[in-house]
Amino acid sequence: MGLTFYERVGFEGRRPSPFSWRIRYALAHKEIDFDVHPVRFADVETIRRLSGQHLTPIIDHDGQVTHETWDIANYLEDRFPDRPSLFGGATGRAIARFINDWASSQLSPPLRHVIYADFPAVLDPGDRAYFRSTRERDLGMSLEAACADPEKKLAAFQQACAPLERCLSTQPYVCGGAPAYADYIVFSIFQWARLGSPKEVVAKPSALADWRSRMIALYDHLGDHFLGYPAGSLERS
Amino acid sequence: MGLTFYERVGFEGRRPSPFSWRIRYALAHKEIDFDVHPVRFADVETIRRLSGQHLTPIIDHDGQVTHETWDIANYLEDRFPDRPSLFGGATGRAIARFINDWASSQLSPPLRHVIYADFPAVLDPGDRAYFRSTRERDLGMSLEAACADPEKKLAAFQQACAPLERCLSTQPYVCGGAPAYADYIVFSIFQWARLGSPKEVVAKPSALADWRSRMIALYDHLGDHFLGYPAGSLERS
Questions:
Q1: Residues A70, A99: one domain?
Q2: What is the CB-side half-sphere exposure of residue A24 using CA atoms within 13 A?
Q3: How far is Cα A107 from Cα B159, in angstroms, rounded to an integer?
Q4: How many Cβ atoms from other residues are within 10 Å of residue A14's Cβ?
Q5: Phi, psi for residue A148 in degrees, rounded to 5
Q6: What are the C-alpha distances in Å from A197 to residues A57, A234, B158?
Q7: Which of A1, B105, B121, B132 is 20 to 30 A away from residue B169, measured at CA?
Q8: Which residues of B touch A162 (CB under 8 A)?
Q9: Are the C-beta atoms of B29 and B81 separated by less than 8 Å?
Q10: Given B79, B112, B147, which residue is the final one in a domain?
């Protein structure tokens, strides 16, 4: 019994999935112990058998299986009400839902056009062809074509980050004086970039860069707990 | 004694300012009575003398003058703690700050390129030249040039609204089951469009359109309390 975290694992044990990161931080915030069940893209049948769908992460808590990060965060908040809150009440939870939708619709799409050509190098070699074929089908072009004109693509992503820079210039975390789930949602996007590409996507100096450093350092430097982007991998991948 | 709301007033008593609307809704939410002191762009010296700056709205509460809508909302929340909360706690307040920054950096700029050519018609005739000259200086082009290629401009604004559509498909208000200040921030942008232009900027049917209707109907149909865009004004302005 306990909590098992089914998490996508990449090349040499890397953790490049943004969705895993937001749940890892949520589990640390809630001070919940867990076992990790590593999965690869190739393990889709294991995930489907457990959760009825193919996306990770999923959690299995005493036999109760939950998928989709927003639902996992809500499950943890409701099942562990005596632990530190991820949302700070009903209004905080509702607006965090907006942040979740904002990150997925406004941050992730432009970031794909910055990092996707670099990304296969952080996946298990056996998962790279699957990643490339599914993403290129979704994009309607090669990963390299999607990342052409890199300065323009980076500028588009950084323009989408403008409200973060403004907000974090006035308060240390998205959630105020201390981090909570809305911070973990947003940080997971930057962690995806940081571990999935050698490119620096955050302008410095900036309030956003300072916040990211604080986020990496939380929970005994959780953000640095796994390997970073492999040196020289652009040649190797 | 009491609360005086210094609010920009336009043609025939219209209220086209988005900043006024978010404070009007906040005052209604807090059930606070107030007097209105209407101001025009031409009344800049009155505002500067009271608040040390030239932007509206401002409030004067028993001699305490506050400007900048975010600071006004926080003032109301802290000075009227026994009234319904605008933020639902510290985390809700902090994330609402992000919404404020998101609306001003991601919604307002593209919306200007949709409605600005229409906007002078809702201002007092004596304020139109001031509005045009200051906004054209900021834009570096005429209002009409800023609004050229209207389909493309509307598409850019609607793309920025994508996270609202997603979020409002899962919950009735940005703040959850009931509206609060983050809703008023976002609604004020749509009210600006609705009262400042004859164009419909919200796709229908949509969760966003339904939410806007609910927001208009709040507080005894507050959103319809003043005149709409003047019929035929495109010819008149």
A1: no
A2: 27
A3: 12
A4: 20
A5: -65, 160
A6: 21, 9, 30
A7: B105
A8: 101, 105-106
A9: no
A10: B79
> How do the pLDDT tens digits run along chain B, 237 residues long?
699 999 999 999 999 999 999 999 999 999 999 999 999 888 888 889 999 998 899 999 999 999 999 999 999 999 999 999 999 999 999 999 999 999 999 999 999 999 999 999 999 999 999 999 999 999 999 999 999 999 999 999 999 999 999 999 999 999 999 999 999 999 999 999 999 999 999 999 999 999 999 999 999 999 999 999 998 755 444
Helices vs strands, H then E, count in chain A? 12, 4
Instruction: Note whether ipTM > 0.90 here.
Output: yes
- Are B17 and B109 members of one domain? no
Residue of A nearest to B183 (CA): A95
Cα separation of A28 and B7, whole Å? 47
Contacts of A170 in chain B (CB under 8 A): 97
CA distance A43 to chain B (A): 30
Contact B98 A174 (CB under 8 A): yes
Residue B166 contacts A, CB cutoff 8 Å: yes
Chain B residue with Cα closest to A162: B105
CATH code (residue A30): 3.40.30.10
SS3 B61: strand
Same domain, A118 and A207: yes
Among B195, B50, B174, B81, residue whose Cα is nearest residue A102? B174
Is this structure's pTM higher than 0.80? Answer: yes
Q: Is A145 exposed, middle or buried (0-12, 13-18, 19+ CB in 10 A)?
A: middle
B104: domain CATH number is: 1.20.1050.10
B164 shares a domain with B65: no
Which residues form the domain of A54? 3-79
Strands B3-8 and A58-61 come out as unpaired
Confirm or reject contact between A173 and chain B (CB < 8 A). Answer: yes
